[in-house]
Amino acid sequence: MKKRIGCLHAHYSNIEYIQDALSSEERELVHFVDPGLMSRILSDPDFDEAQAKKKVIEQIEWIAHANVEAILITCTNYIALLDENRLTASVPILKIDEPFFHSVCRHIGPQVLLFTNPATVEGTMSRLADYAAAQDKPLRHVEARVIGNTFELILQGKKEQYVEELTKHLKEIVASEKNKRISVAQLSMVEAAVNVQREWSVAIGNPLDCLKAQFDVQSVREGA
Fold first, then answer.
1. Count of beta carbons in the 10 Å neighbourhood of residue 52
2. Count of CB atoms situated within 10 Å of the CB of 35
3. How many other CB atoms sit within 10 Å of the CB of residue 131?
4. Are 117 and 186 in contact (CB under 8 A)?
5. How far is CA 75 from CA 62, 96, 106, 185, 204, in A?
6. Cα 126 from Cα 122, distance rounded (Å)
7. In what order do the strands lie in the sheet containing 70-73?
8. Of 73, 71, 76, nearest to 104 (Cα)?
């Protein structure tokens, strides 16, 4: 019997990434999407963090009662807002950023973590710092950088234009930061990162590859 995993996304475009990377004969992916929360966080000054956290809890509780064995959260902002102590559901929560954090912490040289959503940066970097401390792996020379005026495109459904703009910016950054490890921190940025990797034969870290590697290892262990 397939393992049923509920996937919570902040945008419909992320379904394809997760489906392509994680679908298998062993697991069934069930997708839940709410682009409204991120839009409101960015546009409504009266919508505070407490309200956002409450909304994320409601989303997780809803998915937990949809006959799933685990929940994968693919939005880094949702992860940062999640207060697991308030959850009543006992379904395991999988977070797309934790395998990525493991990869970041293993690298000892200078790094640049790229974002397009400025609202995601503080929460993600705080979680990264906590993860590194828990693993006793001090962060060295890790810089967070936002590629501005792009995230609005994905919220407007202009995915092709978003990927095109992001690909252009990534090429500029890779060319100017040759002594640093470059990574994209959001799932929506993966396609542009892959474009640059293929065209320029350079390595760009991303959370999807790290997540897939973890699932592959887990599948081997469960099949052993």
1. 19
2. 17
3. 19
4. yes
5. 17, 8, 23, 10, 19
6. 6
7. 27-33, 3-9, 70-73, 93-95
8. 76
CA 147 to chain centre: 16
pLDDT given for residue 88 in this prediction:
85
Per-residue pLDDT, 222 = 60
Q: What are phi and psi of 6, to 5 degrees?
A: -85, 130
Distance, CA of 203 to CA of 194 (rounded, Å) = 9
Token representation of residue 81: 């807002």
Task: Report the length, in residues, of the chain.
Answer: 224
Alpha helices in 44-117 (DSSP H): 49-64, 76-81, 97-106
Q: Say how far apart CA 24 and CA 158 lie, in whole Å.
A: 29
220/132 Cα distance (integer angstroms): 26
**Distance (Å) of CA 151 to CA 8, 80, 168, 221, 222:** 19, 18, 14, 38, 38
The residues of the chain scoring below 50 in pLDDT are 220, 224
Q: Please name each of the domains of the chain with its CATH number.
A: 3-96 (3.40.50.1860), 98-209 (3.40.50)
Q: 7-33, pLDDT tens digit by residue? A: 999 888 889 999 999 988 889 999 999
pLDDT at 220: 44
Q: Quote the tokens at residue 208.
A: 């999807």
Tokens for 60, please give them: 């997780």
Q: What is the pTM of this model?
A: 0.87
Nearest to 210 by CA among 171, 174, 184, 173: 184
Quickly count: other Cβ atoms within 10 Å of residue 150's Cβ: 23
The burial of 213, by beta-carbon neighbours within 10 Å (0-12 exposed, 13-18 middle, 19 or more buried), is given as middle
